[in-house]
Design goal:
Elements (H helix, E strand, L loop, with lengths): L1 H22 L11 E3 L4 H11 L5 H19 L6 E7 L5 E7 L5 E7 L1 H5 L3 H4 L3 E3 L2 E5 L6 E6 L11 E4 L2 E2 L3 H12 L7 E8 L1 H10 L4 E7 L2 E2 L5 E2 L5 H6 L3
Parallel strand pairs: 1-11, 4-5, 4-6, 4-8, 8-10, 9-10, 10-11
Antiparallel strand pairs: 2-3, 6-7, 12-13
Helix pairs in contact: 2-3
Bound molecules: uracil.
The site of uracil (URA) has 9 residues, from helix 8.
């Protein structure tokens, strides 16, 4: 009948919408494999282009980086933020089913100083509940070895604790591997850790994939190479220096 054909069309349209929503959560090809996801979004490409340009001044660099961090964090927590189901009273005297972020399970965000801080600037506007644990590393320019000068990670970590680490540039992977190893040695699990970075390169990705299957990395771009000084090419230069105008 005409009515049942119309209802079948409605069902088909609805199931298309549902499928599109489910697809928005990226999955690795095999369950125990690291996922690297570069969301194909024009705004992400736009802010990355500003960061790459050598003519972008520090103030603009910082705000582009913060904006990119906001978009990448939004993607990274899509299937990560713990939620609770409640009911809320609307101004019309009606009751609506509601999903809210769980205030008892704040995401533990870990900015790697200096530049990771800029990526997190807008995180408080993306996630209603979060705790911040700063870590700071310096890289020896000759050996490219990273050494910690600040570590505010919690002494004890439960395997269920959710971590979001921000570091704009994953080049050789030396620093990020140390931070994740530290979280895991305190009791954390790689599957409960997400990394947000602006640009990543194959050496870092290989190290992370070998050591931490189950990890998820969200980035604007995978670049091709790292030069002998540890810079990503084409990259965007030294993210910390550019964000803070350090000569
Ligand atoms: N850190 C940076 O700031 N830039 C790079 O290209 C690599 C590491």
């Amino acid at each position: 009948t005409r009515r049942s054909a119309a209802s079948a069309r409605r069902v088909a349209r609805v199931s298309l919408v549902v499928r599109a929503t489910a697809d928005a959560v990226p999955k690795p090809k095999k369950p125990q494999q690291m996922l690297v996801y570069a969301p194909p979004h024009p705004l992400i490409k736009h802010w990355l282009a500003l960061l790459r340009s050598e003519y972008t001044p520090p103030q603009m660099f910082r705000s582009a980086c913060a904006e990119l961090g906001r978009l990448l964090i939004y993607e990274a927590v899509r299937d990560f933020l713990p939620t609770i189901e409640q009911q809320v009273q609307t101004p019309l005297g009606a009751v609506a089913d509601a999903t809210l972020c769980d205030p008892t399970k704040p995401i533990k965000v870990v900015p790697i100083l200096r530049a990771g801080l800029v990526l997190l600037e807008q995180a408080g506007q993306v996630m209603p509940f979060q705790e911040t644990y700063h870590v700071g590393y310096v890289r020896d320019p000759k050996t490219l070895q990273a050494t910690a000068y600040l570590n505010k990670l919690p002494a004890k970590v439960s395997p269920d604790d959710l971590f979001l680490i921000t570091d704009p540039m994953l080049a050789t992977g030396g620093t990020i591997v140390q931070v994740i190893e530290d979280i895991v040695s305190r009791g954390g699990k790689a599957e409960n850790i997400r990394v947000v970075a602006v640009v990543v390169a194959p050496p870092a990705l290989k190290k992370l994939a070998d050591r931490f299957p189950g990890l998820k990395v969200y980035t604007a771009m995978i670049d091709e190479q790292v030069d002998e000084r540890g810079y990503i090419i084409p990259g965007l230069g030294d993210a910390g220096d550019r964000a803070y105008g350090t000569p």
